[in-house]
Structures
1.
Amino acid sequence: MITRFKVVFMDEVLEFLDTLDDNAREKILFNVDKSRQRSDPRLFKKLSSDIWEFRTIYANMQYRLFSFWDKRDNQHTLVVATHGIVKKSQKTPKKDIEKAVDKMKRYFESKKRTR
C-alpha cells in the first residue's frame, strides 16, 4: 500500500497514548495509519494554516492528535504529531492549536540549528 507521508510522534503524544486503554490507543493508531494511505477529512483535518488534527471517535469519545507538516526534506514528507487530547466540546480548544503552533516553531528552530 502506498503511503502519502510518514508520521512522527513527539514525546507528549506517546505520553498521551500511554494514558489510554489499549482499544482506544489501537483505534487511534489504526486511523493515523489509514490517513497515511488516503485523504479523508474525517480522519485528518486542517484546523489552521499550519495545524492539522488526526481524528478518532471511539466508544463515544473524541480523540485528537494535533500535528503539522514538515516538507523541507525532498525525500520524505513528514507529519509531526505534537500532542493529544480527549475532545470534550464541539469547538477545538484554541489553546491546543496555539500549543501545536508553538511546538512547530520550536521544532523548525531546532532543525535549523542542527544543519
Note: The longest strand covers residues 61-70.
2.
Amino acid sequence: MQAFRALVFDAYGTLFDVHSVEALCEERWPGKGAQLTRLWRAKQLEYTWLRSLMRRYEGFEHVTADALEYACAALGLALDDEPRHRLLRAYRDLTTFPEVHGALSALKALKIRLAILSNGSPAMLRPLVAHAGLGRLIGTVLSVDRRKTYKPAPTVYRLAVERLRVPKLAIGFVSSNCWDACGAKAFGFRTFWINRSGAPVDALGVSPDHILHSLDQLPGLLQVPVS
C-alpha cells in the first residue's frame, strides 16, 4: 500500500466548529440560537451546490451572508447591520474542535504534509487559520475560489494534486461532511470521514474509506498500514 505523503483537510465543520457562532446568535435572539445556527449552515451549503449547478459562482463571503439573510427571514428575526456584521465577522474567528491542535501536531510529527482545501475564500481562510494558530502546522491553504465552483466538483479536489504535486493515491482527504468525503473518494483520494454525530453514510454510490468518531483517532491509524 502506497504511503500517505499528504493529508488534506476540509476546514468548516472538520477543523473549525461552525456552530461556535451559536452563543452569539443566542445572545442576539434568545431561544433561537441553535435553530438559527443550524438553518444558516444548511442554507450556506445548499447555496454552494445550487450556485455550482447554475454556474453562477459567488465567493463564500457572499454565500454565507445570503444564507444568514435567508435563515433570519425564515425564522422571523430582524437582521440589521450591527448583528449582521458581528455574525459574519465571527466566521473569521470560529473556534477549532478541542482535539484539532493535538491531532495535527501528531500528524506533523509523522512527516506528512498537511493542507486545507476549503469552500472558504482566501479572505476568510487567512484570518481564520491565523486566529486559531494553525499556520505552524498546516503549510498549504487552498480555496475553491481558484476554480470558481464549490465542492464536491472534481476540479476542486484536483487543486490539491496540482498544488502539492502528489499523486491522488498518496493523498488522504479528511472531512466531517460525508458528502465531501464521498466527493473526494469519487475523485480518487483515500478518504477519512470524521463522523462526530454518528450519522449514516450518504447514499451517493461511493463511501469513505474510513469512518472515525474524532480527529484524534487519525494519527494512530496512520502509524499502521492503511487498507
Note: Residues 18-90 form a domain with the DNA polymerase; domain 1 fold (CATH 1.10.150.240).
3.
Amino acid sequence: MNHVAVIGGGYAGMAAAVTLAGRGVPVTVFEAAKQLGGRARRVDYRDTALDNGLHILLGAYRETLRMVHLVNPGPHLLHTPLEWCIQREFHLAAARLPAPLHLLIGLLRARGLDAAERLATLRFLRALRASRFALAHDTSVELLLDRYGQSEKLRCLLWRPLCVAALNTPPAIASAQVFLNALRDSLNASRAASDLVFSRVDLSALFPEPAAAYVERQGGAVRRARRVTAIDPGDDGFVVTSEGERATFSHVVCAVSPHQANAFLIGITALSEIADMIARFSYQPIHSVWLQYPGRVALPAPMVGFASGFIHWAFDRERLCGQRGLIGAVISAEGAHEDLAHDALGAQAHRELMQLLGKLPEPLWTRVIAEKRATFSCTVGLRRPPQVTPLTNFYLAGDYTASDYPATLETAVRSGVACARHILQQR
C-alpha cells in the first residue's frame, strides 16, 4: 500500500495529510518545529497566544473553510460582511444584499469619498468586470491604476491597502493580474465571498493542530520537532532521513517554504528546472507587532487600517479572541520599518495607535514577530512551480506553487489538497 511522507506541518502540508488520511492512505507528517502551522503558527509569549502573522480569511476561501469545518467544527470563525475602515478617513461597509448590489450600495454610502471618486471607482470595477478581470499582458498594480485614472486618494485609501493586504508586495512591482484574480473571486463573486472571516482562536489551534489529531485518528502519524535533512529518490520510492533515521515512502509531498524546498531539489536532475525557478524568487517580510495594554482598548472595528505611518492594519484581539487589552498590528511587505529595532518598532506602533484612539496607557509589553521571508514577491509575470513535478511521485505544496492567487492560506490549502488528489488518482 502507498505510504506518503508529507514534509512540513503548515497549512499546505496538513491539508494534504488530511485529504490522504481521510481516504485511508497511510501518511506521515514531518515538522521541524515543535509547533504546527509553519509561517501561520502560534507563538506563546508571557502566557499569551500570539500569531506569527495576523492572517484573516475571506468567504471566498472555500477550501480553507471546508478543511476547518472538517477537522475543527464549532464556533471558531467569525463571519462579518466586508467592512473597510481606514482610520477616520474612509469607511465602506458592504450592504446585506445580493451581489453586486452589496458592493454598489456600500460604495454609494461610503464615507470619505466625493461623488467623482465614487464614480471613478465604479467605472474601474465595471471595466474590470467587462474584461472578465483578465489582462492581455501583465503589468504592475500602479500602472493598472494609472490606466484607469484612479486618483491618489483612491489609491491611498482603497487600492494600495487592498494590494498589500492581498499580495504582500508593494503596488509598484506587484502583479496586476494576480491582484485582479483576487478581486474577481472576492469583490466580484457572491456577497458571502467578500465576507471577512476572523479566527476566534490562534492559527495553530484553528487548523493544523486539529488536523494532526484527525490524521492520527485515521492511523497516520504527525512527528513534530523532526527535521528532514535529506530526500533521496530510490528504486522503491523515496528515502527520507530525519534526525538520523531513514524510512522509505512511495510518495513525497514537499510542503515547506520555497527556499527550504530548494535545498531538497538542488542536485536532483529531474527537478533542476523547478529549482532554478525557485532560485529566482525574491521575498517580502511581514512584521506582527503585539501590544498588551493594562485595560480594555477598543478599536472602532475588529480590523482597522492606517493611511500613514508604519502600521497597515490593527486588530482588536479582545473582540475577536477575548484577549483583554491585546492589540495586534501588522506591517506587510518591505519598508523603512525594517531598519528599526523591535523595541523601537513597538513604541512606534503605540504612537500610531494613539493617533487613532487618543491617549492610551503605556503597554505592559510589546512583542515583534518578524517573518523576513513571509511570502514570495508577487511580481509581474512571475513563474511559479507546479504541484506535480517531473520526478514521479514527488509533489510540491505551498502558497508559492502555481495558482491564480497570491501567497495566502487559501493558496496553501488548495495546493496541499491538489497534491493529495493527484496521489489518490493513482490508486
Note: The longest strand covers residues 365-376.
4.
Amino acid sequence: MDFQAILDAIAAQKELINSKFNPVESAMKEMRESMTGMNTRMTTMEDVFRQRKSSGVSLPGVNEGKQQFSFLKAIRAIRWNDWNDAEFEKEVFDQTRKRAMSQGTDSAGGYLVPTQHIAELIEMLYDRAVVIALGATVLDNLTGSPVEIPKQTGGATAYWPGENAAITGSDLTLDQLSLTPKVVGCLVKLSNRLIQLSNPSAEAMVRRDVATALALAVDLKALRGDGTSNTPTGIANTSGINTVAIGTSGGVFDFDIAMQMIDELDVDNALKGKLGFAFHAKVKGKMKRERIPQFSGDGKGAFVMMPMTDAVLKERMGYAFETTNQIPTNLTKGSGTSLSEVYFGNWEELLIANWGSMQIMASQETSDAFEKNQTWVRILQDVDIGVRHAQSFCLVNDANTVFA
C-alpha cells in the first residue's frame, strides 16, 4: 500500500477544500472589519452630537438659527415664574448664573443674560452710541475691579554730551487709569398683553427700546459725566483736555474754530487714531448755513458752499462727525445764551468698560403696574468710562446754536 500516495491525495483534497472556502472566509473577515469600523464611527458621531447638545448654551453659535434667545419669553417667564415655554432661556440663565457665581458675582433676585445669546441687543446698543460710532474702545466681559490701564506720562530725553562727559539720565514715567464698576440701568414699562404676544415685531420693539435707553445713558456720561454720585467722568470733565474759546460771550462754530481744535491735538502730538467731531444737530445746521459777506454792508453774504450735504461737510472738515441731541444747547457765557459744546479727539482713547452681563428683573407689583396690567422690566449693567490721555481731546463749550 502506497502511504505516500494516500497522503498526497489527502493534501490535494485539503488544498482543494481551502481553495473553495478561503475567499468566503476572507470576505467575511473584511465584512467584520468594515462593520467594526462603522460601529466606531457611529459611536464617535453619537458622542459629538451628545456633546454639542449638552454644550449648546455655553458654546456661542452652536444653536444659531434653531434656538434664539427670546427677550420677551424670558421676561414673561421671570414675571410669572413659568418656564414651560422658555426652557432654552432658563437653561441659558442657569448656565450663566453658575459662571457668575463661580466668579463671585451675586445674581440673586435677577437673571444674567450672557452676551452670546443676546448679541443683537448688544449690537443695537453700540449702533445707537455716538461715541462708539466715532471709535471709542469697548472693553467687554471684565471680571476684576478695579481694572487698571497703564498710560505713559513721560518719555526718555536725548542729550548731546561733551567729550568724556556723562549722559544725563532720564526716566520713562508711567501712570494708570483705574476703572471701577458703576451701575447703569433702564426701566421699561410693558403691557402684559404685549409680553404675551412674543412675536418678532414685539420682540424687536422691546430690544430696540432697551438698547436705545442704555446707549443714550452711556453716551451722555461718556461726553459730560461729572464723576459724582457714583457716575463715570466723561470727556468734558476730564482734567487736562484741550479747550478752544470762541469768544467772551460765545460765537459761531465755523471751519476756522474747527481747525483750531485740530491744531490743539497736533501741537500735543495727539493727532492720530480714530479722529472725529461730536456736536448737536443745531451746530451742524449752522455750519451748513455758514455765509461769508461779499462786500461792505452785505448783511448775510453768500453761502460757503451749496448744497452743503453731510458728505461735503465731512470732506471740508477733514474728519468724520456724529451728532447727538443729548449735548445741551442752553449753556451760557458772558451775555451769550443758547450755547452748546463741540468735541474733537482721538476716540480710541475713550474707554468704555463693561463688567459681566446684563441683569434682568421683572415685577408687576411696582408702583401702579398692577392696576394698569403692566410689567416693569429693569435692566442693569456695570459700566465705567475713562480717558487714557487728556491731550487726545479738545472741547469748545460756547458754540452758538441760534439760527440768524
Note: Residues 48-66, 101-109 have pLDDT under 50 and may be disordered.
